[in-house]
Amino acid sequence: MVGLAGRTGSGKSTLVKVLAGLYAPHVGRVTVGGYDLGTLSPQERAGLVALVPQQVVLGPETIADDLRLAAPTASDAELTAATASVGLGAWLTGLPGGLTTPAGGASPLSAGERQLLALIRVALTRTPILILDEATADIDPATAGLVEVAVDALATDRTVIVVAHSAATLARLPKVFEVRSSGLVPVPPIHRASA
User: Fold this and answer.
1) How far apart are the first and last CA of the chain?
2) Higher pLDDT pick, 36 / 106
3) Do 56 and 63 meet the contact criterion of CB atoms below 8 Å apart?
4) Which of 28, 47, 128, 158 is deepest in the core (most CB within 10 A)?
5) Quick one: pLDDT at residue 193?
6) Interaxial angle between packed helices 111-123 and 141-154, expressed in degrees from 0 to 180 and rounded to the nearest 10
7) Are 56 and 107 within 8 A, CB to CB?
8) Is-contact 103 62, C-beta < 8 A?
9) Phi-psi region of 72 (alpha: psi -120 to 50; beta: other; left: phi over 0)
10) DSSP 8-class letter at 40
11) pLDDT one-digit tens code per residue, 107-127
12) How far apart are CA 175 and CA 184, in angstroms?
């Protein structure tokens, strides 16, 4: 797990979009496992890198339908197992309709709960890299705690890059870099509150 910190406008979100293959670098190339992301199709890139943005867009129907965007043939039991695998089983069963709870449109889900669904989608894939772009920003502390539980579970077999401003989030990470125009600068643990 690696954190990226920096001032607003320093290029954190741009950097993660380059790392996810959504933007082409001006110089050089981004490779994952020897594959140049610039030469891959969007589907091939999606098999290597999962990007969870700050504002998650959900599918138009139910939670089950939304999760099946990541795993179209998954059964309800497989969706429930993936949810439990990232520590969110109790959260899902606590929703009024469970898997049949509306996801898009007039959905009762908060911004933080939308983040949780995006993380469950990642659990349904085999992507080796997960990038979180301000995933815990603007959500309540209880839901932020659930996001952290899910990220910890996903990190057991993935590389995780976390973009964050929160000192609490940065303090949890073994390595943090500040994004500057001159490049990435390591941030010692003692200085993370000001990164």
Assistant:
1) 17
2) 36
3) no
4) 158
5) 56
6) 10
7) no
8) yes
9) alpha
10) S
11) 778 888 999 999 999 999 989
12) 12
